[in-house]
Amino acid sequence: CERRDVEVFVDRCRLRTFQSGATVLRSGERSEEILLLLDGSLQAEVDGVGFPVRPGDVLGEAALFTDDMPALFTVNAPSAGRALVFELPPRRGEDPVGAAIERAMLASMSRRIRHANSKVKKAWKDADGPPPAPESESPKSAGGLADRIRGLFGR
After folding, report:
1. Cα separation of 52 and 40, whole Å?
2. I need a surface site. Which of 14, 15, 46, 155 has the fewest CB within 10 A?
């Protein structure tokens, strides 16, 4: 990410502060904003399962891909903090700031996936290992899960 890209992004954002105990985003509400957490901590929750949001993480990125989609999770602030708020432009494909947002979003999503995977692995370990895969999804079977994943990457 070039320094100029960061400057353009920050110039287009506004600063939002939140107090401890505040609800930053509610499941089901519509938002055309993306938040980049600067400091403090947030806790996102969906269907009773929570995950931490740390400085550098991005929230609201699903709005990049869909129009008028409600938030999928509720986000609360266990501590006070600040976030940069970027309001999505109506014509997203033509906005040069979008590339910088997408990179930050992908990094944030990657951290979330790793966090979810660690919880699943722990649950499997606590339950004496993962359940056996159905024959149709065995990595060794033709057309199995591993083959489908390889196919996504052209291998």
Report:
1. 11
2. 155
Residue 81 has pLDDT above 50, yes or no: yes
Contact 64, 93 (CB under 8 A): no
Q: Token pair of 136, please?
A: 């149709």
pLDDT per residue as tens digits for the range 84-119: 898 876 655 566 666 666 666 667 777 777 777 777
Cβ–Cβ under 8 Å, residues 137 and 144: yes
- DSSP-derived secondary structure for 43-106: EEEETTEEEEE-TT-EE-GGGGTSSSPBPSSEEE-SS-EEEEEEEPPSSGGG-THHHHHHHHHH
> How many residues are present in the chain?
155
The helix-helix angle for 97-126 and 3-11 (nearest 10°) equals 90
CA 116, distance to chain mean position in Å, is 11
